[in-house]
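MOLECULE: protein
FOLLOWS: sequence and fold
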Amino acid sequence: MSDVAQEMNAQPGMAEWSWLLHPPKDQSVIPLRKGFIRGVFVDAAKRLGFKHVQDAPDVENNDADGYLPNVLMDTGSARIVVDRKMQDNEVNPDTLEGGGSFTAAAGHRPLLVLLFLQKRWREEFNTSEGDTIEICDAQLDLFNLTNWESLQPFIEAYQFDAPTMREDAVALGLVAPMLDYDAIGCAEMDAYF
């Protein structure tokens, strides 16, 4: 994390969480991984109801193979782009190395989309070789989503709206939906309880 990011993390309300996409060690899998990454970001955009950005036909694509669009994610408050400049929140189309950080101002959706990518990545590929996506909190501790409760530190630290975040996490299949006990009814009244 940069010195600027560390200073921001020390200020209340300005903490950043970070992500890092490690490049695959086997370069021959890059085209397959590009298609996979694009598919996951398109799926996330559809599930969350935000527009998946497609490159305009007259815009030169940053990915010479044409697999990846120039913008992988645009939630309206945060973007992840494809480029070779290796700036914040960018994925290199040649190596698939990428990373960046977000503050609370970006909202909860970038975190959930990257957790969705992480989940799908683990399901699809053997991640024991180090080519994974990692997410860290403001203290640079690796974060692993296990259930809704494991997101509570992020909700508190970044002041995310918990009901909206839960709804989006359910839409992405990251957590189980809450049971609505009021909706569970019985046609006949009984005195069981």
Summary: The chain has one domain: 3-171. The mean pLDDT is 84. DSSP finds five helices and six strands in the chain.
